[in-house]
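BUG: 3D viewer hangs when loading the predicted structure for this chain

Environment: internal workstation, default settings.
Expected: structure renders.
Actual: progress bar stalls at 90%.

Input used:
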Amino acid sequence: MPTQNPAVLPVQTRNTHVQGVLWDMDGTLLDTEPYWMSAEEELVAAHGGSWTHEDALSLVGSALPDSALVLQRAGVDLDAREIIDWLNERVMAGINNHVEWRPGALELLEELHAAGIPCGLVTMSEGPMATQVLSKLPKEYFSFQVTGDQVSRGKPHPDPYLLGLEKLSALVPDLEARRVVGIEDSAPGIAAAAAAGLTALLVPHLSRVPETGPWHTIDSLERVGLSTLSTLIGIGAN
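Structure tokens produced before the viewer hung:
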């Protein structure tokens, strides 16, 4: 993706604590989880195994190599790379057919864009899928992307968000991790964002998530604006 011009990112002069926002993709920016779940069920069934809705929920937010191991244990007789490629093909076809943005996501992106707050995408999906999703947006809201194939350890490890902070630091002088918001919908994702030192915001969607932790929780991004994010940074995590 083209990098947004740093000259239009006067974050330090804005009346806000927020220096940047790092977004999860699947389940946070858009609702791709039904595509993933359907693909997993189809793949396991093709190999004579059984796959439940609970099994599918357990993989939400996980790194793709970890998901591939679980699917192998469920009976899929393919190597990890073959499984990942098969899932990617099915999910990307679904995205091409229809994109369901999560409630409030585009509105928050537009507000951040108008305020000059840089955003980055931090997803366990791979590069081609992330690029495909970003191409569906009405504007270039994201300055960069971190994808699952760029890190050796995926969520819940902090590595993806630490790489996101590194990329963000090239755009924002004197970056402080706590002044960057990480928005997530899953247990692995929110754990990764919090472990990287971000102000982590959990917006639960389909999967089970912890009731408490070093993060903030809200039921929908429809209730979140730049002032909300600034307030969260100011008060710290619960």
